[in-house]
UniProtKB/TrEMBL annotation:
The keyword Ligase does not apply. Keywords: DNA-binding, Repressor, Transcription, Transcription regulation. GO terms for molecular function: DNA-binding transcription factor activity; transcription cis-regulatory region binding. The lineage of its organism: Bacteria, Bacillati, Actinomycetota, Actinomycetes, Propionibacteriales. Residues 29-48 bind DNA. The keyword NADP does not apply. Coiled coil: none annotated. This is AcrR family transcriptional regulator.
Length: 202
């Protein structure tokens, strides 16, 4: 069966993420991505226009995978505390989590000097904060969360997860990767005035 354009595009994006994780953003080269994807450099550029275009598309696709996976597991009637826990646990097993966080750190560094990357990071941060705020507002409606400003709480909890992610990725002995979800949920329980047990905390 002939390969479709969508499957070829997906293969290129996966190869791009692989190269970024292995070599960092500075080490991404069109020929290397094309080689790993099993396509020509010309075909890669045909699909994405530029190397920067494929890198941005790969990052967006990585984030979309996360949200698709979350929505697949989060039933429409799932209570807000369970949805909040799933939102942070859905990031995956430790190795996959570190790979994703490493990817983000690469983009944060580039964003300091590159306006297009800065805009990409801002867009993806906005998507995450929106998803988190929706869950917090759901919990307020259900009467299980209590916070004066869901938006302000969202910003604080989002920033906390960023900080924990950096510490864990850099092998901080006091912030092991596997402990990050519960460390974050402990603070979320305080921020949201929520019963710890509802968030699966002992």
């Amino acid at each position: 069966m002939a390969e479709t354009g969508d499957s070829r595009r997906r293969r290129i994006l996966e190869a791009t993420l692989e190269v970024i994780r292995d070599k960092g953003l500075a080490g991404v080269r069109t020929q290397e991505v094309a080689r790993r994807a099993g396509v020509s450099a010309g075909l890669l550029l045909y699909h994405f226009g530029t190397l920067e275009g494929v890198v941005a598309a790969a990052m967006r696709e990585s984030e979309e995978d996360y949200y698709r996976s979350f929505e697949d597991e989060a039933a429409a009637d799932l209570p807000a505390p369970d949805r909040l826990r799933l939102l942070v646990l859905r990031q995956g097993e430790p190795d996959a989590v570190v790979a994703a966080w490493t990817l983000w750190m690469e983009f944060w560094v580039r964003a300091l000097r590159d306006p297009e990357t800065a805009q990409l990071c801002a867009d993806l941060d906005s998507r995450w904060r929106s998803a988190l705020q929706v869950v917090i507002e759901q919990g307020v409606r259900e009467g299980v969360f209590a916070c004066a400003s869901p938006r302000a709480t969202t910003i604080r909890l989002s920033a906390l997860l960023d900080g924990l992610s950096v510490a864990a990725t850099l092998d901080d002995p006091e912030v092991p990767v596997a402990a990050v979800p519960d460390l974050w949920l402990e603070t979320a329980a305080l921020e949201l005035g929520c019963d710890r047990a509802l968030l699966g905390l002992g």
